[in-house]
């Protein structure tokens, strides 16, 4: 069994659902134009929103193919940290229950990606 199989599987499903759903619903465009542009990222908000979604989408492919897993983790951790800072922090800790849209889910994802960073993978040149 490949290292961190269950963590990698669940991370890939979460990233896939998070990216594909917002791409097909058009929410990625709204997020870029109606949120990121208004908080100071104009005129790049739309491009940043798409960059995040494409990072998530390409991460899924790389995780499934067991390639560049550490790089995937290192690209996604800053995205999640910035998501905490710009979106979730003001909502507190809880995603549901004690509150809504909080940071707990992002913190869990960051810890899962950190597990991938600190797992020793064999060198592909062996």
Largest sheet: none
Number of domains: 1
Q: Give me the number of helical elements.
A: 5
Shape: globular
Count of individual beta strands: 0
The SSE order reads HHHHH
- Tell me the helix content: over 70%
Low-confidence stretches: none
Instruction: Determine the strand fraction and express it as a percent band.
Output: under 5%
Descriptive terms for the model:
mainly alpha; transmembrane; 126 residues; 5 helices; transmembrane helix; 0% strand; membrane; DoxX family protein; single chain
Short synopsis of the structure:
The protein has 126 residues and is mostly helical. It has helices at residues 5-25, 27-41, 45-64, 69-88, 104-117.
Can you put this structure into words, describing what you see?
- The chain has helices at residues 5-25, 27-41, 45-64, 69-88, 104-117.
- The chain is globular.
- The protein has one domain (5-117).
- Helices cover 71% and strands 0% of the residues.
- The longest helix is centred in the first third of the chain and has 21 residues, at 5-25.
- It is mostly helical and 126 residues long.
